Amino acid sequence: MADQNSAPLRPHSEQSKDRASKRLSTESNGTSDGGVGSSTPVEITALEESFRRFAVHGDTRATGKEMHGKNWSKLCKDCGVIDGKNITLTDVDIVFSKVKKKSCRTITYDEFKAALGELARKKYKDKSGEEAEAEVFKLIEGKSPVISGVTRAVASPTVSRLTDTTKFTGSHKERFDETGRGKGKAGRVDIVDTSGYVSGYKHQGSYEKKVTKPTAGRPM
C-alpha cells in the first residue's frame, strides 16, 4: 500500500522547467557572492546582466565574466556614476587598480561590486554604506553600453556651392549629365564616334529605318 503522505507525482514538463530554472540560477550565481543554491535578489541579477553587457563590449573574445579597465570606465560614464564632482574619471581608475589583483588587468564580478561599493560611499556621503550601494546599483541595473552615432555632415553654403554640378565649367562640366549624374568614362575620355555621322546630327539612324521599312501590304 502506497504511503498516503507521499507527494503526488508532478508532470514531466513541470520537472523540466524546475531543472532549467535551477540551471540558470546556478549559472548566474557562479559569478556572484551567493554561490550555487543561494537565492540571488532580482536587483543583483539585473546588475550582473549589465556587468556582462559592458564586459563583452568591443571585444569579440570576451566571455562576460571579467571586465577590463576601459569598459569599467565606460560603464561608470554611461550609467552616470561619474558626476564630475564627487566621482571623477581619476577616482574610477584608482578604485579599479585598488580592487583588482596585482597580476591581473581585469576585474571579476565580485571585484566589480566591491569597486562600486567604494565609489558609492564617495558619491553618496550622506547615506549609509548599504543605501549608497543600492543607489549606485540602480544607476547600472538594466543598462547597456551607449553606442556612439555616426557624425552627421553639416550643410554648408561653401560645400553646397562646390558640389553643385550646374555651376561646373570647362572639362569638369562635361563629366556630368543634366541631372548631375556622373557620366563615368564617357565624361573623362574622348570616345571616337565611328557611326559615320557628323557630330551633332539629329537624324542619326533615320536612313536605316527607311531602308529596312517593311514592304508588306504594298501593291505589286
UniProtKB/TrEMBL annotation:
Entry-linked Gene3D superfamilies: EF-hand
Subcellular location: Cytoplasm
One MF annotation (Gene Ontology) recorded for this entry: tubulin binding
InterPro entries: EF-hand-dom_pair, TPP/p25
GO terms under biological process: microtubule bundle formation; microtubule polymerization; positive regulation of protein polymerization
Sorted UniProt keywords: Cytoplasm
Disordered: annotated segments: 1-41
Residue spans of biased composition, Basic and acidic residues class: 11-25
Domain of life: Eukaryota
GO cellular component, one term: cytoplasm
UniProt xrefs under PANTHER family: P25 ALPHA-RELATED (PTHR12932), TUBULIN POLYMERIZATION-PROMOTING PROTEIN (PTHR12932:SF18)
Name of the protein: Tubulin polymerization promoting protein
